[in-house]
Write a structure and sequence with these properties.
Structural class of chain A: mainly beta
Number of helices of chain A: 0
Order of helices and strands of chain B: EEEEEEEEEEE
Largest sheet of chain B: 7 strands, mixed
Distance between the termini of chain B: 37 Å
Oligomer: heterodimer
Radius of gyration of chain B: 13 Å
Largest interface: A-B, 22 and 28 residues
Order of helices and strands of chain A: EEEEEEEEEEE
């Protein structure tokens, strides 16, 4: 069993829809990260969370430490949001273990 | 500030050869971590360096090695290349304040 599980694996939605991607983890973590990867490979860090909720533009990320669960929400989705969204965790403070990744959610937003 | 720079962007090597990839982190970041991404295994942690010391290594054979220099620049080396080493290799620099910033990656093809 993977230490980081994401759902759904694939998601196709219409422009303007509210999107939710879920992430569950089974180990103790120091932080959870939401990453975005576009075709071509480049990875952008969207959020780093250790508690609560963060918002950046149309993106919202929440984490529940007790339930070991995080969600990434996209409001008013747009075709440019089409990408792979990856949940990753830092196991140890200071990053000595690097990141452990989920398998990603492939999101397609149709116009 | 300048991002994480990885060189080269693309590389084609023959089985049995060795390869060295380079990563220049964001100025002030002392932690550099390396990752391998393949379609089958997704993103996997290779190793992490902090102040020229390898603090942790993922589950990869000894053919994969790395080092970090006093200016925090890092290199990774893969010796005796195998077809299965074909992948996108990503490095990231990090700090506890800024989180992770990824380079654009080196796409290695072994023929």
């Amino acid at each position: 069993k993977n230490e980081v599980e994401q759902s759904p694996q694939n998601l196709t939605a219409q422009e303007g829809e509210f999107i939710t991607i879920n992430c569950s983890y089974s180990v103790g973590i120091s932080a959870l990260h939401w990453l975005q990867q576009h075709p071509g490979g480049g990875i952008v860090s969207l959020f780093m969370l250790s508690s609560g909720k963060k918002k950046h533009g149309r993106l919202i990320a929440t984490i529940n430490i007790q339930e070991k669960h995080s969600s990434l929400h996209i409001t008013a989705s747009h075709p440019r949001d089409s990408a792979v969204y990856i949940c990753a965790v830092s196991l140890r403070r200071g990053g000595a273990d690097g990141l452990t990744f989920g398998k990603g959610t492939h999101l397609i937003i149709q116009p | 500030k300048a991002g994480v720079t990885q060189t080269p962007r693309y590389l084609i090597k023959t089985r049995g050869q060795q390869v060295t990839l380079s990563c220049s982190p964001i100025s002030g970041h002392r932690s550099v971590s390396w990752y391998q991404q393949t379609p089958g295994q997704g993103l996997q942690f290779l190793f992490e360096y902090f102040s020229e010391t390898q603090r942790n290594k993922g589950n990869f054979p000894g053919r994969f090695s790395g080092r970090q220099f006093s200016n925090s620049r890092s290199e990774m080396n893969v010796s005796t290349l195998e077809l299965g080493d074909s992948a996108l290799y990503l490095c990231a620099s990090s700090s506890t304040l800024d989180g992770y910033t990824f380079g654009s990656g080196t796409r290695l093809t072994v023929v």
